Automatic annotation (TrEMBL):
Gene3D superfamilies: TusA-like domain. It comes from the Bacteria. Pfam families: TusA. This is UPF0033 domain-containing protein. Belongs to the sulfur carrier protein TusA family. Residues 7-31 form the UPF0033 domain.
């Protein structure tokens, strides 16, 4: 998987990870992939729902050392 942009949203509380994700994905072309790092536990549900409602694809997510990582492909 080729990541086109990495967003560091660690330490930010809701709704900032979503706000920053929206801004970052707007800078990408359709089909490009955004990797997001966040420590907000609510981001799992938030980003899943946001990606679906925006027509984007949540490729995968994982947790590593208290950091949630998401890969979203722009729709």
């Amino acid at each position: 998987m080729t990541v086109d942009k990495v967003l560091d949203a660690k330490g930010l509380a809701c709704p900032m990870p979503i706000v920053k994700t929206k801004k970052a994905i707007n800078e990408l072309e359709s089909g490009q992939i955004l990797e997001i790092h966040t420590t907000d536990k609510g981001a799992k549900n938030d980003l899943t729902a946001w990606a679906k409602s925006g027509g984007h694809e949540l490729m995968k997510h994982e947790e590593e050392n208290e950091v949630l990582k998401f890969w979203i492909k722009k729709g």
